[in-house]
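Continuing the batch. This is chain 6 of the set; chains 1 through 5 are on the previous pages. Same settings as before, nothing changed between runs. Recording input and output for traceability.
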Amino acid sequence: MIEPAWHLFIESMQKVTNVDQVLEGHYSMVNSILDDAMLTNQNLLATMIKLLSYCLMFSEKILIESKLQSPSPDDSAVSEIAIPNHIYTIEELTEKFNTELVGFLRDVRSCNQSSKVTNIIYRYIFKYSNGVYQLALWVIR
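Output for chain 6:
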């Protein structure tokens, strides 16, 4: 996101004749980066943060369960402390993630987000087009 915007900015700087044009080019570059990173839409950003938090909880849960299955003397204390913090099962985390993902796709479709975000989502759905991702494709249509 940043590098293409930077190249466009540098290219546009070759044609500037005054400070106002420099400021306008910079403003345009920053807005382009913010839009492409979904930082201008608070709803999309909040949903993306939820999706990422579910990913982190899932990975922590898998790590803890793998340590419990083959504990080493150093890991046992860490696992015992971490277990109470993880109240979701893997199935519950999967369900919550899928629900948030479908909501995120609906939000992207309804807010007419930039074409870069939409293209990334379409590529992701195409690559992993099974189960919930088929449902997600239906939501986007």
